[in-house]
Design a protein that fits this description.
This protein is α+β, with helices and mostly antiparallel strands. The chain contains five helices and 16 strands. The chain has a single domain, classed as SOS response associated peptidase-like (hypothetical protein yedk fold, Alpha-Beta Complex), CATH 3.90.1680. The strands form three sheets. Strands 2, 4, 5, 8, 9, 12, 13, 14 and 15 form a nine-stranded mixed sheet that branches. A hairpin with a 6-residue loop joins strand 10 and strand 11. The chain is globular, with a radius of gyration of 17 Å.
């Protein structure tokens, strides 16, 4: 699953690429983390929304806990109650430069970045909705991983070439669902020494004797 990705172009550039209108003030960071704003193509505009559908939780004493951002939706779960209404009525495109996956041993996982070879910006299938907790929110749709990354994770984002953008946004659910498949695109892979959690690299972490928390938001 994906819980970190990059989007290095500004709102105006993205809006021009997708031939939509840019929302004023929709600037977001270049690295997008769960619970933070990302750029989304929905209803003919490039808009900022919070990444992750809020999953309401309760504690052992019945107290309401802070919601957890569900950042990924499995393709085989799109017709379940949590996702179905958004899949049927509110599909979106998520502009992405590359996405990251943790790789390596627990406690020393580093960031491996994946992108589409030859493409500076590509589109991932997404869903969106309004929420009481965080306003407008979105999630990425996941399909089984391709051969280039299956050893790192068994799921990857649904990558949509430009010819499929309009279908994903506007077609009937059955036609859109047919696009939720493993991409055949060649991936560009960049392995780094930067720890999955924290700002340091692997060597600095080993020297300091630090461990890292590799817990991540859920995929439904």
């Amino acid at each position: 699953m994906c819980n970190l990705y990059r989007m290095t172009k500004g709102t105006a550039e993205v809006a021009a690429l997708f031939e939509v209108l840019p929302d004023s003030g929709a600037n977001v960071a270049e690295e997008i983390y769960p619970g933070y704003p990302g750029l989304v193509i929905a209803e003919g505009r490039a808009r900022a929304m919070t990444w992750g559908f809020p999953l309401v939780r309760t504690g052992r004493q019945g107290q309401r806990l802070r919601p957890k951002p569900v950042t990924n939706a499995r393709d085989d779960k799109l017709h379940t109650r949590f996702w179905k209404d958004s899949f049927v009525h509110r599909r979106c495109l998520v502009p992405v430069t590359s996405w990251a996956e943790p790789e390596g041993k627990a406690g020393r996982m580093t960031r491996t970045w994946y992108g589409v070879a030859g493409e500076e910006t590509f589109a991932v299938a997404g869903l969106w909705r309004a929420s009481v907790e965080w306003g407008e929110v979105y999630t990425l749709v996941m399909a089984p991983a391709c051969a280039q990354m299956v050893d790192v994770h068994d799921r990857m984002p649904v990558l949509l070439p430009p010819r499929d953008w309009r279908t994903w946004l506007n077609a009937a659910p059955e036609e859109a669902f047919a696009l939720c498949r493993t991409s055949s695109a060649e991936l560009h892979v960049e392995r780094t020494r930067r720890l999955w959690s924290g700002a340091g690299d692997l060597a600095a972490s080993a020297e300091a004797g630090r461990d890292v928390d590799d817990t991540m938001p859920r995929l439904l």
